[in-house]
Amino acid sequence: MLNINYIKVDPTTFLIQFVKGRARRKGNGLALWYYAPSTSLVAIPSTTTDLPFIFKEITKDFQEITVQGQLVYRIADPEKIAALMNFTLKPQSSGNHLAYSTDDPENLRNRIANLIQVEMRSAIEQLPLRQALNASQSLMKVIKVELARSEVLDTLGVEVVDLSIVAIKPTPETARALEAAVRERLLEEADVAIYRRRNASIEQEKIVKENELNSEIAIEVKQREIEETRLAAERAIQEQRNKIQREQLDASMDRERATKENDRKIAFEMETAKGAIQAERLRAERMQRQQRSEMEGEQLESDVLLERQRKDLVELTVRNERMRADAKAYDVAATMEALSRVDPKVLEAMTMGNLDPRQLMAQAFRELAAGADKIGQLNIAPDLLQSIAGKLQPGAAKGGNKLP
Q: Which domain range does residue 159 map to?
């Protein structure tokens, strides 16, 4: 309404504000208000831009090929290109949508594409078809170097970031011809391989046959040698058997002669031994009779001596028994004499300590009975008798007797 507008660009966009033909403000990512009738805005993107391309070129042997690739570039010096090309924005442009008043931004892409095509053509014209189809890496390196040296790009302030060649293809007819040639060569190589394999199999079969014949000959020779060895071994075994039989016959004859000689010697020795044994037996019998007589005399003397010893033992035993009886009688007489001088009541008291409880009770009741005329009346309660019986029970149990 007042022709005052506002614009804000991205940080990757270089903005120049011209007021009355002079640059008032410039920089990346600017945001500003401006008066439209007297202000011109120039916006130059400094981001990387992808430029795909497809070129048809002619090789050294006049064959057409198609080169497909992509160039990545950026405007490194926006002020240079702003001085050479028109990147002025339209008045209705905003930060989100930059609308240029001229076609120079698109013309820049065309200029760069033309430079690439010129360099590509000059490189491919020097290569034949087969070599050109496999020269993507070498072409990429050469064109990168040439673009880096380009005065046009340097003047415009454009920097090449990357270049890639995706594919180099011939025309369909040429591709079919190349495929046919390669196919024929592969078939030829396959035929040669088949012939070589057949020849090799024939040679191998020949070698196998020769090896089989040589093996059969070697087997026959080996079997003949084995047969000769077997016959020689059998002859040697037969000779060994004959030798062993002769040796056994000689040995049996020698044993027979030795046996007869031994029999004669044994018979003579037996006769001699019989005489010696008879004489020895007679001598042994005489010695046995003599020894028996000596043993009988010794036994008689031993019996006499034993009887004498028995007699002495009996006399000694009698004397010992007499002395033992005398000592016992003297002991009894001395005891009786001592007891005769002791009071009978003392003796009775001494003997009562060893009496059975029942005997003591009987003795007590007897004493009571003896003095009954003096007692008058005596009452013995059942409880007293029971308590006395209870006290006497352990003694009775110990002695093995019970109270009546």
A: 4-170
123: amino acid identity, one letter? A
Split into its structural domains, the chain has a count of: 2
Given 149, 170, 191, the domain boundary residue is 170
User: What tokens were used for 262?
Assistant: 């031994």
290: left (phi over 0), alpha (psi -120 to 50) or beta: alpha
Q: In this structure, are strands 31-35 and 22-28 parallel, antiparallel, or unpaired?
A: unpaired
Containing H/E element for 69?
strand 64-75
pTM of the model: 0.44
Residues of the chain under the 50 pLDDT cut: 395-404
* β-sheet bridge partners, residue 4: 35
Residue 34 structure tokens = 């401006």
Predicted local distance difference test score (pLDDT) of residue 50: 92
Give the whole-angstrom CA distance, residue 369 versus residue 85: 175
Quick: pLDDT tens for 56-96. 989 998 888 999 999 999 999 998 998 888 888 887 776 56
32: exposed, middle or buried (Cβ count in 10 Å: 0-12, 13-18, 19+) = middle
